[in-house]
């Protein structure tokens, strides 16, 4: 499966400097099977990635997995900060589930959507948006879900 991370927007960081990257975790039955990361974009509030992240997922397992997208702020000396998260997959809620189902229904068509990111530390306040384009996710033997991450 391929996840195409495109861009982020409307994200803010408290200290004013932002070095964002996106971490994509493949989850199955609540367990993280794999995780992959984009490159770090330096000093930008609206990063553009245009990067593909690939997971090998057999077609028969598509109804058991989901993707957790975490937008992170890289810190060279301290801990990396989670800016916000969203989930796409069978077990996701709302648009995350709808997007996954649409992708499965049209496996050869790129389907992009903006997804709101929620802050995990506080009261799940919206902190930005992400565009996801799970593409070819149904054709898991070769490619699984290409998605664009915008406003992550």
TrEMBL record:
Where exactly are the transmembrane stretches of this chain?
Answer: none
Q: Start and end of every C2 domain? A: 1-115
Q: Which GO terms describe its biological process?
A: calcium-ion regulated exocytosis
Give an example GO cellular component term for this record.
exocytic vesicle
- Gene3D superfamilies cross-referenced by the UniProt entry: C2 domain
UniProt feature coiled coil, ranges: none
Q: Which GO terms describe its molecular function?
A: calcium ion binding; calcium-dependent phospholipid binding; clathrin binding; phosphatidylserine binding; SNARE binding
* Matches recorded under PANTHER family: SYNAPTOTAGMIN, SYNAPTOTAGMIN-6
Q: Which family does it belong to?
A: Belongs to the synaptotagmin family.
State the name under which the record lists this protein: C2 domain-containing protein
- Organism, scientific name: Ursus americanus (American black bear)
């Amino acid at each position: 499966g391929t996840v195409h991370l495109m861009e982020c927007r409307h994200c803010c960081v408290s200290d004013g400097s932002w070095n964002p990257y996106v971490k994509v975790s493949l989850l199955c039955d609540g367990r993280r099977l794999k995780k992959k990361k984009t490159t770090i974009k330096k000093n930008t509030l609206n990063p553009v990635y245009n990067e593909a992240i690939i997971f090998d997922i057999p077609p028969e397992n598509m109804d058991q997995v989901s993707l957790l997208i975490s937008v992170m702020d890289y810190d060279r000396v301290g801990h990396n900060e989670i800016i916000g998260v969203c989930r796409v997959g069978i077990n996701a809620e709302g648009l995350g589930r709808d997007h996954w189902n649409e992708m499965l229904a049209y496996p050869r068509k790129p389907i992009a959507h903006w997804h709101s990111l929620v802050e995990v530390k506080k009261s799940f306040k919206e902190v930005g948006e992400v565009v996801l384009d799970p593409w070819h996710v149904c054709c898991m033997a070769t490619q699984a879900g290409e998605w664009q991450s915008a406003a992550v």
